């Protein structure tokens, strides 16, 4: 593995090649779909290859040992990625936070993360570092729409809409 080494890349319409000091070290076909990642498993680090053998249920089972909100957080992370494996590092990082913080704090941070849409390792870590897991989660207050004489309603833009009587 060439971790931290400078390499040259040659990309054509059909192929990507990686060279180190003039010697080709990797080559694989490009995806015909724009912005779609293609990966050859042999090009992944050994630790990533091992993680690919895990089903997502393995991570969810670990999360459930912390609590239901942590399991929900992991589900959100895994579902937000095109491939669940792309969320493994984030989930494993969150589990490692349980070594520094208690499972109770990790679960409280997961509750906050899920309720605010902050479903990532970095955000959960920030919640724990700032002690936000110890504060109550604010629930949004439903407010009536703002009424003002200078505001134009739906009728202004679409005459088929019924104007509101004030």
Describe this structure in words.
- The chain is mainly alpha-helical and 166 residues long.
- Helices cover 42% and strands 10% of the residues.
- It is built from seven helices and three strands, in the order βββααααααα.
- The longest helix has 14 residues, at 103-116.
- The chain is flat, with a radius of gyration of 24 Å.
Keywords summarizing the entry:
166 residues, mainly alpha, three-stranded antiparallel β-sheet, 7 helices, flat
Summary, kept brief:
The protein is mainly alpha-helical.
Q: Which whole number gives the mean pLDDT?
A: 84
Low-confidence stretches: none
Helix content: 40-55%
Number of helices: 7
How do the strands of the widest beta sheet line up side by side?
1-2-3
End-to-end Cα distance, whole Å, is: 71 Å
**Elements, N to C (H/E):** EEEHHHHHHH
Sheet of most strands: 3 strands, antiparallel
Structural topology:
Blueprint: E1 8-11, E2 15-20, E3 23-29, H1 46-52, H2 56-66, H3 68-79, H4 88-100, H5 103-116, H6 121-129, H7 154-157
Antiparallel strand pairs: 1-2, 2-3
Helix pairs in contact: 2-3, 2-4, 3-5, 4-6, 5-6
């Amino acid at each position: 593995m060439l971790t931290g080494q400078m390499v040259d890349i040659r990309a054509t319409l059909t192929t990507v090649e990686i060279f180190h000091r003039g010697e080709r070290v990797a080559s694989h076909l490009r995806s015909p779909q724009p912005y779609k990642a293609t990966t050859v498993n042999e090009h992944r680090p050994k630790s990533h290859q091992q993680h690919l053998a895990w089903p997502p249920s393995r991570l969810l089972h670990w999360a459930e040992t912390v609590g239901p909100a942590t399991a929900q957080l992991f589900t959100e992370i895994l579902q937000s990625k095109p491939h669940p494996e792309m969320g493994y590092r984030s989930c494993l990082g969150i589990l490692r936070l349980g070594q520094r913080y208690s499972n109770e704090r990790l679960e409280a941070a997961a509750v906050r993360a899920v309720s605010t849409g902050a479903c990532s390792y970095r955000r959960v870590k920030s919640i724990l570092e700032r002690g936000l897991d110890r504060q109550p989660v604010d629930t949004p207050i439903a407010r009536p729409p703002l009424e003002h004489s200078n505001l134009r309603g739906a009728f202004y833009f679409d005459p088929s809409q019924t104007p509101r009587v004030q």
